[in-house]
Design brief:
365 residues; alpha/beta; Rossmann fold; 4-stranded antiparallel beta sheet; 16 strands; 18% helix; zinc; metal-binding
Amino acid sequence: MGGIDDNTWPMPGDMAGKVITCKAAVAWGPGLPLEIEEVRVDPPQKMEVRIKILFTSICHTDLSAWQGENEDQRVYPRIFGHEASGIVESVGEGVRDMKKGDHVVPIFNGECGDCVYCKCEKTNLCEIFRVNPFKSVMVNDGRSRFSTKLGEPIYHFLNTSTFSEYTVLDSACVVKIEPQVSLKKMTLLSCGVSTGVGAVWNSANVKAGSTVAIFGLGAVGLAVAEGARARAASKIIGVDINSEKFTKDLSLDIGKAMGMTDFFNPRDVDKPVHEGWGLTVTLGIHPTPRMLPFHPMELFHGRRIIGSVFGDVKGKTQLPHFAKECMRGVLNLDEFITHELPFSKINEAFQLLLKGKSLRCLLHL
């Protein structure tokens, strides 16, 4: 199905309530090439959804998990992947907000809508379905919905496991979107783009005329730039310790397209560039327990620092709005997709990201 994006998808036959056999990229150990295997995908249980993945991409979180950077996450065999889009194949008992054929985006940071956390405007971390890199089974019964042909369990990842033609998720981790929206582009809202744009719109609430400095010009950093451009920031400064990103790397041209006005490497200057004040928002996953190297007094003089998970976006509540903003042209997602490959070449896509050659390589299933 590679390359087609007209949002008209052939639906599988009626497999509701039955086990589906399909292809998946299985990780058997840290750093080992992913193996395209035939796996069994169980039907969804109560408050679960089984979806057919049409597009998936690779994020640095997938890369670090595949490399086994955190020993506590080394659960194998496992199906990685958390940026994707697809269609609902079947739903389990109790699911009311989705049905077969709906266009959906999986989210690693779920939203049940009922817990005290979801009902609070100050957090986007659901009590039960928040992001948890150590979780490897379903909430419902503590079991996996994936297995080998011999019936041995294959474990889940980040509430999603999208490196598979079919996957089962808690309904709290699935967002329904309008069928008119490009599923290919909506893949990017599962993680990186929503994290960056959300940090600007939600966490920092950047206003028109603001100055924004971005430290680290990967996909998330560029998403911050796109969010700042959409909010009419007057100056968007890109900062990275890799000077190649300002010469031969793809980040420079894309950064300019996303509104960056200045670029510099802090290692190339011998004195502070400007007075440091304002709000710092930290994003991303930090696999080591190293502490932030600053003195508490550095937070005086109008300085603040906060952490942001998934850009403080409440997935099921806010992602449909993000999708509409993309339709209106407020957000431009085209520049993020630097490569497209068939799913069978997933290991090649990993190498592109590992070598800094891609922002997002879209895989067609």
